[in-house]
Request: fold
Amino acid sequence: MSCCCPHAQSAGRLFSFFAARYRKRFERKGFEPPQKQLFAGIKQAGFQDSSILEIGCGVGYFHQTLLENGAASAVGVELAANMIAQAKDRAKQINISDRTAYLQGDFISLADEIMPADLTLLDKVICCYPDADTLVHKSLQKTQRVYAVIYPRDRLLTKVGVSIGAFLMRLVCSDFRPYVHDPKKIEQWVSEAGFEKVYENTTAVWLAQVYKKPSDKG
Reply:
């Protein structure tokens, strides 16, 4: 099942085009700086023997790295067909296919079909959604212990970059647009769902945060 929204369809086409490049970049260089930060925060929160839900999983290397380091299982949700194909191929290559499952489509449309997980991961996904409110709330509903996110900082530098990105998307007649959502609102939504922030770090552009249910902080 996939979303009929033009924005989602355009996002799927765009990220499918870059799928092979994303995988090759990771295999050459590993995690990007904000991903290294988020991985550190997830280790601090604890993920051993956890089930993982990665929304916007791309070519799969983040949740697959967690599986290689002690997580139990993972479900990846992704709009782009080529990203899913790369994720499945890499899972097979590193012998974790039996612990992974993949769904192609818009998470908001698929949410009712997805089981809750111990840890939910959104790596640079909130900035791809015009409706951050629904995305965050539905993903929190699927999260039992740990909620880990990377999204843009609310800074002039970021807003200029997003504006340039939106302009380029219009030039190529794409309906996809990047967004800078208010971090204060995102933090409010997460805290209102019963999570407490246990880790935060930043780069010039990105904000990496890990939240945890207070009952599971021990």
